[in-house]
Amino acid sequence: MPAKDLYHEAVCAALIKDGWTTTHDPLTLRYHKRDIYIDLGAERLLAAEKDSQKIAIEIKSFIANSALAALEEAVGQ
């Protein structure tokens, strides 16, 4: 299981403040007999439709010496 990103807790707190409920931390998906880890899974109830929205969130921080190198690393993952 991968390590949590520097801003993981801040993202969780922002989601809760916006009305989301964290359902998975991390969210694990199975693809071709391999596990894929996504930082968070969350859902929010829609009162008018009595349904829910679901999202998967990958958290990245750009803390490398070069913003371009950090972006390249994040996109490559």
Topology:
Elements: H1 8-17, E1 21-24, E2 27-31, E3 34-38, E4 40-46, E5 51-57, H2 67-76
Antiparallel strand pairs: 1-4, 2-3, 4-5
The major sheet is characterized as: 3 strands, antiparallel
Instruction: Provide the low-confidence segments as ranges.
Output: none
Quantity of strands, as a count: 5
Supply the number of structural domains. 1
Provide the CATH architecture: 3-Layer(aba) Sandwich
Q: DSSP helix count?
A: 2
Structural class: alpha+beta
Compute the separation of the termini in Å: 15 Å
Which H/E pattern describes the elements?
Answer: HEEEEEH
CATH classification class: Alpha Beta
Tell me the fraction of residues in β-strands, as a range. Answer: 35-45%
Could you report the average pLDDT, rounded to the nearest whole number?
Answer: 81
Helix proportion range: 25-40%
CATH topology: Trna Endonuclease, Chain: A, domain 1
User: Per the principal axes of the C-alpha atoms, what is the gross shape?
Assistant: globular
C-alpha Rg (nearest Å): 15 Å
Main sheet: which strands, in order across?
1-4-5
